[in-house]
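Entry for potassium ion complex. Fields follow.
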Amino acid sequence: MKILSAEQLNEADKITLENEHISSTRLMERAASLVFNEIHTRLEGADIKIKIFCGIGNNGGDGLVIGRLLHKYGYNVEVFIVDYSDKRSDDFLINYDRYKKESSSWPEVIEENTDFPEISPGEFVVDAIFGIGLNRPAKGWLAKLLKHINNSGAFTLAVDMPSGLFPNKAPQKDATIIKANYTLSFQNPKLTFFLPETMNFIGELQILDIGLDRDFLKEVKAVAQLIGKREARQLYRPRKRNSHKGDYGHTLVVGGSYGKIGSIVLSAKAVLRSGAGLCSVYTPKCGYQILQTALPEAMVITDKAEKELSEIKPGLEPDVVCFGMGAGKSQTTANAFKALLEETEKPMLIDADGLNMISENMDFLNALPKNSILTPHPKELERLIGSWEDDFEKMEKVKDFSKTNDLILVLKGSHSFVFSEGNMYINNSGNPGMATAGSGDVLSGIIAGLMSQKYEPLVAAILGVYMHGLAGDICAEEMGVETLISGDLCDYLGQAFLALEKE
Ligand SMILES: NC(=O)C1=CN([C@@H]2O[C@H](COP(=O)(O)OP(=O)(O)OC[C@H]3O[C@@H](n4cnc5c(N)ncnc54)[C@H](O)[C@@H]3O)[C@@H](O)[C@H]2O)[C@@H](O)CC1
Ligand SMILES: Nc1ncnc2c1ncn2[C@@H]1O[C@H](COP(=O)(O)OP(=O)(O)O)[C@@H](O)[C@H]1O
Ligand SMILES: [K+]
């Protein structure tokens, strides 16, 4: 699904009105009715106190429509106008009058010196103060009102966006923003919903298709692509009946050091579980028995050194090399890594200490084959590109870094991001159970395993990140988030592939 900016959504809005020959009031009615339906389906007429806070723009207009419909269906609803400006939008004014006509009372107005209404924890609040039109932080009494709502403990539903959040730029550090339990957002998700500093404000997210112009939405260049099951399914290629292991490629996993052999066991297992035909592991001598015992399906080649990588001479030509997990970053290993980079022509996958060695020797980047994949977590990223002011600046810095160096970068996190050629893909699978030792090693193995099966590196990165999260989701469903450990992600990959095939 495309992630769009406020400007693009406004444009879609305008084109829809022209092409469908409908008024903006009609479109507002359509959008807000969908929100009403969602509320009505869940509350089923329950006698719960509903308070709707409306701004004076179109987000507020939506709130008034929702209020009118709830009133019509007999709900216990109170509507408040948050009177922060005189510049009421036309559709706000039309719906203000309609509300009055149907409910036979004017909504209450909240101004600078009005006492805020009391809100008890059991009530239901609808936040329709600001949507995508926010153009400066909420200040003064307005900020106090947002805090008042946040402190009430009431369940809060945000219409389109939690008020105070910008759709496509970072909030100020001390900004006051509605902390929604649930967000019903119109037509397309906004970038801010997926970034670590702002994702907590939206609660659970649901996108409502309000029927904006299909052709426009199809053509417009997305800010980013959100990758869900439908998108992943389009990337997945089922195996051919008439095939053999040679068709699925040979992955070489290189890494491990004394005390950290487990990391490459996890990666190699993930390589095989994601469908690679063959997997070899190159490791210091101390890894030999561990690997042969833990993973009989993998072949093992050992370095001449006992405890660390000193010279990477596997004596074979793999389809893809997956480097760095548990490797350590001694000078000896860094030299061996540099030599490996210089000898390798096909795109590689670099993770963990591989990334740290690059950060300490940025010239290694020149030897990295084009289209290689780096998979940093935020700390590793910071070592690579330096610090950033906010998430939006970080995104821009990573875009530049991946473009300048001709590489694909997977930034891991609660939502992992894939960057390539200035484009951005945001993963929508996964759960906090995956915040556990070794889950990154599994991800490297999955992506490398897909690369060896001739998935283009970018496709392998996007699909691999999605499958990793999906395996985690299916696993967490069965055993809970606390209990999930990274080895389980390998074991649940099978169910993840089955779920994808069913889609
Ligand atoms: N674009 C679309 O596709 C649709 C948009 N609709 C609704 O329209 C909303 C956007 O409406 P608007 O553009 O009227 O904007 P908003 O209703 O989000 O904001 C209203 C106005 O408040 C002012 N403002 C912004 N920040 C402020 C601040 N910190 N303090 C005081 N005033 C501030 C601005 O002048 C802004 O235009 C969407 O979020 C959505 O709820 C829907 O009605 C239907 C379709
Ligand atoms: N809260 C979360 N929600 C979804 N995925 C997560 C979450 N926390 C971690 N992950 C995923 O788990 C992996 C962790 O990788 P990493 O930090 O490298 O761990 P390790 O070094 O222990 O292997 C990443 O793929 C990340 O996206
Ligand atoms: K809102």
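NOTE: The longest helix spans residues 457-479.
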